[in-house]
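Quick one: structure tokens for this chain, please?
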Amino acid sequence: MSTQTSGTVADAVPSPREHHRHAAPRSAPAGASLSRAVLSEWTKLRSLRSTWWTLVIALGLAVGFAALLAAVVSNPDAQQPQGGPGANGLADPVGIALASSTFSTLVLGVLGALVVAGEYATGSISSSLMALPRRWPLVVAKVSVLLALLVPFALVLSTACLWVAGLVYGDAATIDWASSDTWLAVLGNCAYLVAVALLGMGLGLLFRTTAAAITVLAAVVFVAPPLLGLVTWDWVVAINDHLPGAAGTSLASTTGGTLSSLDAWLTLLGWAAVPVLAGALVLQRRDA
């Protein structure tokens, strides 16, 4: 009787190998966790009305200032740089049109900061981190979703600025849509807009508050360039030439800028990647 009971109990308790075989499927692989994280982040981003209002404001600002700048520079009485194409000697009608999107960079940077800092403000970051104990997939998912949203949006915004400016220029200048230089400038402008948004996200990861992230972002993108431009020391000039705005201006132009194309691309890559990587490292090492 006791022998039968012992055999029954032994049969009922699984061996360590069987237990491992049955329990293993419960832990999802990293790829599955990452894909679910991307889907979750996309759902959160598109379900917020602030996301779409931010994009509408950014597009409206860029197109509006494109029309305004084009109207100003195409004025026959305005002083224009000589030696460039166009009836009034507009040196770079493409660069002038794309310069209008500079006013939208802060808006997109705020959107990047809100992707992270907004969760800290509402406390939902705790739920996100509980769902992903390894925190790097959360950062990768947020970056992927922001890129998927902003890359096509930046292309539409840049193209819309050129189209509106071309209409306003009239006979003063023309946009050569068949020129490779035009589309390289469009791609450079897109890179600038996306890089500033990623900079905002990185600052959101580092500071965890929207106010601090926006303050630093505005200082880097808008406040520092004119202030540093007042100083003629070589090392200060070098720093000013490698700020995001200078790199974006160099790329979003058909006549070049203070940086070569390679230096400008590397500068934008650094401003986009370093804050995000630093923020991801900080996120790994501290509590939510």
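The mean pLDDT is 83.
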